[in-house]
Design a protein that fits this description.
The protein is an all-beta fold and about 170 residues long. It has one domain. The chain contains no helices and ten strands. Strands 1, 2, 3, 4, 5, 6, 7, 8, 9 and 10 form a ten-stranded antiparallel sheet that branches.
Amino acid sequence: MLIRKQFLYCIHIPNLFFSYIKVDAGNGTGDEGTFTYRSRYTELNLGIQKHFSGTSRLSPFIGADLLAGADGTHHKGEDAGTSGYIKNYSYDREAQAAQVGIRAVVGFDFWVMKGLYVGAVYRPVSLILQKEDDTTTTSVSNGSTIKTVNPGGSYATLNTFGEVGSVRIGWLF
């Protein structure tokens, strides 16, 4: 028996990651390099859920989400590359991508009190379409510059093993 339909929207605050690494030459000279890595991901998620009768406090549901997102990474090294210290070497790589997709959701909400619930959500299957921009890598070694452009592309991913579940807290107005 259907209890209610629920429309959801969610904007994931950008996931930001930053790493700064000092790399020692390891030869006792005190020479060192630096390597930085930055990444970000932002997602907009719109969904609908169909809740079924459970108990007075437990409400199981199924649903679907539409999602759109963007991500990017930036690596930069001075006297360092991805493998460690390299004297007179610099490295700079940047990549961008955008995604759209749909995913199925299943879960339940537990009503703590009138209007307030906590729930668990599992995403068993999703279809994601991704478009990657060209990735540009520039490296300079002993004054020689090499610029490499790897062409971007588009691809689809069908995820059938499920994504990590999540816990949610909500208020029904």
